[in-house]
Amino acid sequence: FFLWILQRLLRLQESRHVEEKAARIKDWVSNKLRDLEEQNEHLREQNQKCETQLELLRSRLTQLSQLNSLQSKSKDRHSTEDSSRGSYEGDRPPSDESPPPDSADRDSQVNQQQTPPPRPISATAACLAAIRRRSGAFDTPEERRQRRKSNLSNGSNS
């Protein structure tokens, strides 16, 4: 009879131990899921920022390509005009000055002066941000929270 009671107590103790272990595992899984959801949200936000930046870069590249195309057409036009003028230079002393611009060139210069200078694009900054995002995947939840707080405080000062 005592043996039976002892076995029953041991089984009860083992079942409590198993239940406690299952509860710890459940808590760990819940915490891990929450951390992964936070990380996923952060990555979605970063992805959206990158897509916006990529769109801006594409737009700027298109603008620069069009500007380059216009400049090369302008250079081609000047070279054909110069060759059609003939080769007589007269008694002019040689100089490094270019001939006076025609009205189309003046318009082009005015437009260029009105256009703000292009913003330099830092590939290094983009690479560093990507590395930070990737390395963040191995951070603890507390490290991620601290980094987010730091990023928010740095972003508001800009």
UniProtKB/TrEMBL annotation:
Residues 73-95 have a biased composition (Basic and acidic residues). Keywords: Coiled coil, Repeat. Residues 26-67 form a coiled coil. It comes from the Eukaryota. Residues 67-158 are annotated as: Disordered. The keyword Repeat applies. This is Uncharacterized protein.
